[in-house]
From TrEMBL:
This is LacI family transcriptional regulator. Keywords: DNA-binding, Transcription, Transcription regulation. One of its GO terms (molecular function) is DNA-binding transcription factor activity. PROSITE patterns: HTH_LACI_1, HTH_LACI_2. Residues 2-58 form the HTH lacI-type domain.
């Protein structure tokens, strides 16, 4: 395993310079280009900062090594606090880890994207594995997976060589559209959000693709005026539905709307009521998620139930299996979804 001396020789600097950079010692200035080369060497040579961390990396499960039973959760904590979908996943992870005797710590995405804190987090914090909800760049992900097992939740990691727990977004929305078509609806709009930078890439988002595929299979045309990319903002859902109604003049309106989340659906239904129209008589609504609030919206929301708590529990159990070497196979698990019929559809 690489030593400070190896990195120093690789870069062509002194061992003390390498040490200052890795420890983020700012008492003496090191040129930015030199810092970049040192961190590249750290990653390339697989340097681990201290002997305790070296032991953990080389054999975390040997009888002689000290277990920490600590797992990191990499997610947008604001989303977990305000969005029931993510808070339910968080709860599932927490419950499964606690039951198995593991502790649960938050790891911020920014800590993994900074070269200094990345190395410290992976090698000196004592974490034995990571559950990823936030999207990490490939370079960071590749470095992390060299040293600790990871499990991804959600679609960011579907095509990566790692274990992923998710649900089939395309099939979930197709199920929603197919239900509406079976009820006689032919003029169906869609409210959702994109992926990528600022969530603007709408065409590649799987829930929108599910809507598009289902409409094509049913032989129905998509009216672009009834399609709203909210970038996952509730205000944009409300405003987008307002615009659909205003432009339609209460006469040229969709008979139903499929929404990529329950929260977006509830915001859009509020706009319908504000225009003194009726849900579902004028416009029916169906969401995705089945958050607790959907049972208490007015009217109660028809939705596709996603097993959110189970997603978290399965992710935690899969990670523990990797940590404790019960499995070395990277698994891709998609949990099922279910139609829940309530009063927002007719």
């Amino acid at each position: 395993m690489a030593r400070l001396k190896d990195i120093a020789e690789h870069v062509g600097v002194s061992i003390s310079t390498v040490s200052r950079v890795i420890k983020n010692d700012t008492s003496r200035n090191v040129h930015q280009e030199t810092r970049r080369k040192i961190w590249e060497a750290v990653k390339e040579l697989g340097y681990v900062p201290n002997e305790n961390a070296r032991s953990l990396v080389s054999n975390v499960l040997s009888k002689n090594s000290k277990r920490t039973h600590k797992v990191g959760w990499v997610a947008n904590l604001k989303s977990a606090e305000v969005n029931p979908y993510f808070s339910n996943i968080y709860g599932g992870v927490y419950n499964a880890l606690t039951e198995a005797g593991y502790t649960f710590v938050n790891v911020y995405k920014e800590e993994l994207q900074n070269e200094t804190t990345l190395v410290k987090t992976i090698h000196e914090s004592g974490i034995e594995g990571l559950i990823l909800v936030e999207q990490l760049d490939d370079e960071t992900l590749n470095y992390i997976t060299k040293y600790v097992p990871v499990v991804g939740i959600d679609f960011f990691y579907t095509d990566k060589d790692m274990s992923v727990i998710d649900y089939d977004r395309i099939s979930a929305v197709k199920k929603a559209v197919q239900y509406l078509v079976a009820k006689g609806h032919t003029e169906i709009g869609f409210i959702g959000g994109g992926i990528g930078e600022n969530y603007k890439d709408f065409q590649a988002e799987k829930r929108y693709r599910g809507y598009r595929y289902a409409m094509e299979e049913a032989g129905l045309l998509i009216n672009p005026k009834w399609v709203v990319n909210t970038c996952w903002k509730l205000d944009s859902s409300y405003e987008g539905m307002n615009k659909i109604i205003a432009n339609g003049g209460h006469t040229n309106l969709p008979s139903a709307m499929v929404c990529a989340s329950d929260l977006l659906a509830i915001a859009a239904m509020r706009a319908v009521v504000a225009h003194k129209l009726s849900v579902p008589d004028d416009i029916a609504f169906i969401g995705i998620d089945n958050i607790e609030l959907s049972k208490y919206s007015n009217p109660p929301l028809t939705t596709i139930a996603i097993p959110q708590t189970e997603l978290g529990e399965m992710a935690a159990k899969t990670l523990i299996d990797h940590i404790e070497k019960r499995t070395v196979i990277q698994v891709k698990i998609q949990l099922p979804n279910q139609l829940i019929i309530r009063d927002s559809t007719n």
